[in-house]
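pasting for ref
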Amino acid sequence: ADLLKTPDLSHQDMMTYIDVISISGRRMLNTLNQLMDISMLETGQAKMHLSIFNINEELGRNLSFFKPEVENKGMTISLNNNLDEKDILIKNDKEKFNAIIANLIKNSIKYSNDGNIEFGYNLNGKQLTFYVKDEGIGIPVDRQEAIFERFVQADIEDKKAYEGSGLGLSISKSYIEMMEGKIWVESEPGKGSTFYFTLPFTKIKNKTPSDKTISEKAQIIKPNKKVKLLIVEDEEFADAYLSEILNEDHFELLHASDGVDAVNTSRANPDLDIILMDIKLPLKDGYTATKEIREFNKKVKIIAQTAYALSGDKEKTFKAGCDDYVSKPIDKDLLLQKINKLI
């Protein structure tokens, strides 16, 4: 930040320093959020929320969400769906399942510079085995158990971009154990890693499309005028994903990348119809931004979007002033249903 005070600083250098500050801020925010997750786990506030969900749908959403980021690094990502359509419903905690998959894919992206990331699952009797495989830097054998401990990372000779808190795998391990599974890794330095985790599997019978846990296909009910919608999202790829979902003639999209920007954009656009408010934001979190927006705009509908998978988060969004809540990775049909309901 002090470098920004340099006299006669060029625009290019200024933007470079701002990018460094922004990236560092996001890393710090991510660490703080992970510390909160650990605290909730240690105090027993992280509860199980069971529902019936479609494995292939959830994995497919993760594929769509991470594909732009992977391709931006010159890599590829693929999904191996291995069960028949009738066998893909399971009863477990959907949000924690998605948090685990996302953590493992993020790790593969972080520690790979080329090649393919493959993820999927296999069924072995009454157990599902999920995996995320990459062609990254790999993990030494003597570090393959330690990486699941808190604040621990594998020893890495190339330190160029591998910052992190060392909490993601520990949180994933705790979630998996809560879900009655286990996690392990097979890896070889220089050749890549494959992370595996198991979950119990029992066929779900007599479920019909009317079951509320199965997403109905939704289309936006065409309104009389364009819906003015603000996407508040600090992650570039998440913003692009939401923009693609809402790529309809009857949407007018605005964008904000932090909580301060969200408040300012909302104030400048009092005719906003919908705000998609991310909760984990730099400068000002989504809860605070929502409360401030409610001080001058009581009418706009606000949908919280969050990667949190902890007890009480939904209630906190409503208390802040949100009208509804959707968890990441975003289910397109569910999001459109919620927008339909609010407009």
